[in-house]
């Protein structure tokens, strides 16, 4: 396990900002951290990057308790890098900004130069080697800051809204890089975002914070597999004797009658017509719409009550009405089984 958190709180001026009962974060995965403004995302990232410490509770990193002594913190901070929401580059050329972290790690000069070139090329900023760091645009600054973070080859990359203040083209570049370093270098990534589309595209796991608490969103759609039919090309599961979902392939040998199935409401797509990309689609009627902070919860009756969560923008585009018939799409990534 990469991080293990138990009964952790963080308080500012008697106000509890974070209150996490239990959280386990696995190595080598991409986690999205979502939640409204002020939910505690940055506070949690600061704790995970060892730049801040919790007031109570336990944090383990790679199986060892974090003790918050200076010597231990220095060692941990070499493995974990936080890319700030609004990174600052210091005065001087781009290459010096990136070289800094390598120099403090006593990497030989020639190796430093090679590494700076490599990471600048990786983020598509190879031509900016000699450019003045503090004169770059917002999107360029973010990419150079990402290069600076990657130069030291961290085990964990934490990103606070990696695409804030960045145009669409640069957003796509940054998201591609995150995906690439996770799949090629197995870097664990946790990124805070306000975009569910980014979460759906990049992350295999989602952590939702509401007023400093982890929301059990997945548990809002929990069902029991009542009938399982194994077919040559996959598995057909009936949920609560009401609707069936099909899982292609034979990757779910553990699933049997009585297994619980959770469907992440943040990953379900909803629309007027069928989503041809989702593995399973169901037709249903909107029975309830509820707003909670920046997220909108829509309860659908598809023969089974299924909750879908949308952002305000997605809600505005769709304008669903109670009583309206809509299609929902359930991708495989939205599904989790538990005994
Ligand atoms: N140093 C501090 N002193 C006092 N309050 C703080 C401090 N840092 C954060 N807070 C408060 O803690 C709460 C959580 O802040 P945090 O920045 O973690 O939220 P967030 O989820 O990252 O928000 P956003 O999406 O707006 O970036 C906010 O109410 C904020 O005002």
From TrEMBL:
Where would I find the ABC transporter domain in this sequence? 3-236
Q: Which SMART domains match?
A: AAA (SM00382)
Q: Name one GO molecular function term.
A: ATP binding
Q: Which PROSITE patterns match?
A: ABC_TRANSPORTER_2
List the keywords (alphabetical).
Answer: ATP-binding, Nucleotide-binding, Sugar transport, Transport
Which is one Pfam family of this protein? ABC_tran
This protein's name:
ATPase component of ABC-type sugar transporter
């Amino acid at each position: 396990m990469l991080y293990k958190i138990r009964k952790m709180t963080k308080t500012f001026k008697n106000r509890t900002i974070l209150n996490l009962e239990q959280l386990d974060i696995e190595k080598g995965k991409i986690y999205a951290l979502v939640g409204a403004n002020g939910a505690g995302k940055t506070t949690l990232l600061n704790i995970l990057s060892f730049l801040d410490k919790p007031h109570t509770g336990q944090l383990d990193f790679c199986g060892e308790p974090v003790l918050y002594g200076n010597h231990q913190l220095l060692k941990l901070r070499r493995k974990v890098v936080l890319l700030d929401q609004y990174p600052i580059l210091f005065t001087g050329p781009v290459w010096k900004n990136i070289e800094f972290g390598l120099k403090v790690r006593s990497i030989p000069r020639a190796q430093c130069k090679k590494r700076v070139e490599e990471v600048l090329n990786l983020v598509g900023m190879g031509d900016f080697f000699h450019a003045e760091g503090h004169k770059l645009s917002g999107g360029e600054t973010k990419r150079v800051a990402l290069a600076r973070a990657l130069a030291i080859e961290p085990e964990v990359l934490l990103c606070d809204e990696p695409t804030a203040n960045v145009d669409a083209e640069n957003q796509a570049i940054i998201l591609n890089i995150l995906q690439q370093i996770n799949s090629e270098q197995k870097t664990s990534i946790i990124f805070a975002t306000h975009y569910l589309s980014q979460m759906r595209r990049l992350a295999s796991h989602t952590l939702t914070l509401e007023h400093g608490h982890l929301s059990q969103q997945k548990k809002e759609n929990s069902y029991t597999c009542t009938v399982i039919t194994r077919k040559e090309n996959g598995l057909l599961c009936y949920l609560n004797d009401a609707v069936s979902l099909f899982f292609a392939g034979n990757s779910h040998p553990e699933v049997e009658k009585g297994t619980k199935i959770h469907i992440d409401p943040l990953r379900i797509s909803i629309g007027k017509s069928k989503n041809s990309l989702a593995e399973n689609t169901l037709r249903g009627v909107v029975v309830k719409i509820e707003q909670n902070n920046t997220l909108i919860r829509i309860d659908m009756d598809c023969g089974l009550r299924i909750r879908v969560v949308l952002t305000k923008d997605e809600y505005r585009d769709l304008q669903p009405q109670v009583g309206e018939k809509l299609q929902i799409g359930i991708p495989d990534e939205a599904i989790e089984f538990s005994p």
